[in-house]
Amino acid sequence: MRIDILTVVPELLDSPLSHSIVGRARKKGIVDIHIHNLRKYGIGPRQNVDDYSYGGDAGMVMMIEPVYKMINELKSEREYDEVIYMSPDGEILNQSIANELSLKGNIIILCGHYKGIDHRIREHLITREISVGNYVVSGGEIPAALLADSIVRLIPGALTDETSALSDSFQDNLLSPPVYTRPAEFNGWKVPDVLLSGNPKLIQKWQDEQAVERTKALRPELLKASDK
After folding, report:
1. 67-102 per-position pLDDT tens digit
2. Structural domain tally of the chain?
3. CATH number, domain at 130?
């Protein structure tokens, strides 16, 4: 898979995408991530990528020309399955979306900044808009890193144990059951006996029950969604 991220602040993405699971996946060649500075196509001697908005609203708006030229340059080199804009208006990122995108070949992620982007970009260049929640952050870089991480960890070979992702929270509209490790008792706090029983069927039954109970208590809306 190849992920191209378009931004005006590339430094915000360097660290999150260079370490841990994503960093190792890049080193293994499992995913190819490229971060592009939109100022490459900035306007004028200062390489401006933003301007005042028509209508007199407060805040600067990212211009269409740098984005258009960068996307066209990338598309001239390969085909893309999606051109995604990180936007508070978009569909809320969930595990189902991450699963779907992990099966794609090439995607572009555009990070908004300032007051937003010229709406013509959204009308003519973007194929999908994704939000990481009902709130606003300073730019799309951190949301883009979240999206990339959620996708990359699902690509075969990214995780040391590929079955680990199958038991993550939200894979079946359920939260994960509690997990424990050594020692079996600490400060008088004990690991549940069933996990020490060595009986796979009993352990699986307990884990399934715990997943449902935790979801009912903490995120009941997930169970309602699975019933639809």
Report:
1. 999 999 999 999 999 999 999 999 999 999 999 999
2. 2
3. 3.40.1280.10
